[in-house]
Design a protein that fits this description.
Rossmann fold, Arc Repressor Mutant, subunit A, five-stranded parallel β-sheet, four-stranded antiparallel β-sheet, 11 strands, about 20% strand, elongated
Length: about 240
């Protein structure tokens, strides 16, 4: 999943970005409202962390412009503890949640996970597809309760497919949502990661839809009945 952090305090911006990266997300960063607005208006982020007290263009104006332009990604706003009026203006502009400064980084992570689950129509932080389970809170993947070790890129890929289970996801969409701006979008890296992920999972849950992309779905149930039973209309 690809996130954007818009915060003018460079140290705080770095700390948030590092925590999100360690949690398995691809992260882009902006340090003022104009840059943040441009990135959010032109790139397909799965969620945004947005400070309200930004130079050049304040966070409320940035958010309001995104919503007017039809940008619907979840937005978590950051605000000072004693600026309750900012929270109200943020929600009126289209914010989905807020965190007051100072905060614990785990709260940022938990709130973002909840926002992205709701955006994808999921209530739980645990996703399942056949024998495969992914715990977004723990960053854990298992096959029938046996833990599978994945690289950060493989985990991001599986997580995105889990969030969009049953839907065909194109290679271009995967690149846009899983990797930051510096990723080589002309490489065959996606195909390599899909192949590695398939081998590590060892179950047939990632299907290739020729010419369109990939879809995550439970393995097709095998019909083990005898041939005679299958041909019997009453079976």
């Amino acid at each position: 999943m690809r996130l954007l952090v818009v915060e003018d305090d460079k140290d705080l911006n770095r700390q948030i970005a590092e925590a999100l990266t360690r949690a398995g997300y691809a992260v882009d960063r902006a340090f003022d409202g104009e840059e943040g607005w441009f990135l959010g208006d032109t790139e397909p982020y799965d969620a945004v962390v947005l400070d309200l007290g930004l130079p050049k263009k304040d966070g409320v104006a940035v958010l309001a412009d995104w919503r007017r332009a039809g940008r619907a990604m979840p937005v978590l706003i950051l605000t000072a503890r004693d600026r309750w009026g900012e929270k109200v203006r943020g929600f009126d502009a289209g914010a989905d949640d807020y965190v007051t400064k100072p905060f614990h980084m785990e709260e940022i992570l938990a709130r973002l996970r909840a926002l992205m689950r709701r955006a994808a129509g999921h209530a739980s932080s645990v996703f399942s597809c056949g024998p495969v389970t992914l715990d977004a809170r723990a960053g854990r993947v298992a096959i029938d309760d046996n833990v599978v070790k994945l690289t950060s890129h493989e985990y991001r890929l599986l997580s995105y497919l889990m969030h969009h289970q049953g839907k065909v996801v194109s290679r271009a969409e995967i690149v846009e949502h899983l990797y930051d701006q510096d990723f080589d979008r002309d490489s065959n890296t996606i195909e390599v990661f899909v192949g590695r992920l398939r081998r590590k999972l060892g179950v047939d849950v990632i299907q290739t839809v020729r010419g369109l992309g990939y879809v995550l779905a439970p393995p097709a149930a095998k019909d083990d009945r005898p041939l005679a039973s299958r041909s019997d209309p009453g079976a």
